[in-house]
């Protein structure tokens, strides 16, 4: 259910805009994430949509220079990496474009797994024909929870809750804090896990009743 919800969200928020920017054609996506990482599902959802996914082996995906060369050679449209690795790829020329020299610029750079630096965000935002999309989500929620584009904000952001997802910033009394004030992020919705296997105490501590949802609904304390 959580994956289906994410798929439907990404169709509207990520896939359709990227396809439109490429003139409606089928896209080429580089699968650059270990299959042991839940983030790897994001590329597979493109495959479900009928796009072309290039699975990069361990050696290729760890070599920034070689990966950029591969993206140029195969005219890859979408890459999905951590912000730190995105910085390395940018330094190796990922966002450079010179068709005569065989340099191809991806239309979309998906980011996740850690905070995005101002440098990476600004470079993506200022690169014509390319944009970035940051996705945030803890293990306790099905892969992605929040998302935001470089076209939405001049500074790095985790964005807004995805489809059928709620996010609250609350104080110690579970009251919403005013904008700009610190608080703890709580997450609820379709993608929420049931809890931790054989760890009922930790489950009770982290998965608490959602006072803003329907009776019986829970939210996760991040």
UniProtKB/TrEMBL annotation:
Signal peptide from the UniProt entry: none
Coiled-coil ranges from the UniProt annotation: none
One annotated GO biological process: secondary metabolite biosynthetic process
Residue ranges annotated for the AMP-dependent synthetase/ligase domain, each copy included: 25-197
Molecular function GO terms recorded: phosphopantetheine binding
GO CC annotations, alphabetized: cytosol
Identification of the protein by name: NRPS
Organism field: Streptomyces sp. AA59-4
Underlying gene: nrps
């Amino acid at each position: 259910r959580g994956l289906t919800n994410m798929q439907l969200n990404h169709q509207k928020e990520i896939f359709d805009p990227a396809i439109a920017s490429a003139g409606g054609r089928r896209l080429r996506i580089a699968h650059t994430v270990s299959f042991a990482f839940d983030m790897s599902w994001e590329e597979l959802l493109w495959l479900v949509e009928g796009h072309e996914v290039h699975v990069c082996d361990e050696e290729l995906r760890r070599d920034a220079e070689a990966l950029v060369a591969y993206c140029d050679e195969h005219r890859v449209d979408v890459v999905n990496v951590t912000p730190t690795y995105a910085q390395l790829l940018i330094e190796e020329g990922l966002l450079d474009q010179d068709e005569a020299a065989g340099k191809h610029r991806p239309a979309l750079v998906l980011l996740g797994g850690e905070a995005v630096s101002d440098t990476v965000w600004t470079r993506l935002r200022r690169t014509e024909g390319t944009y970035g999309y940051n996705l945030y989500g803890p293990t306790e929620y099905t892969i992605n929870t929040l998302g935001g584009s470089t076209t939405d904000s001049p500074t790095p952001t985790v964005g807004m809750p995805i489809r059928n997802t709620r996010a609250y910033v609350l104080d110690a009394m579970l009251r919403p804090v005013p904008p700009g004030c610190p608080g703890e992020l709580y997450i609820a919705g379709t993608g929420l896990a049931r809890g931790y296997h054989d760890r009922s105490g930790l489950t009770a501590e982290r998965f608490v009743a959602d006072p803003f949802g329907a009776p019986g609904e829970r939210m996760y304390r991040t």
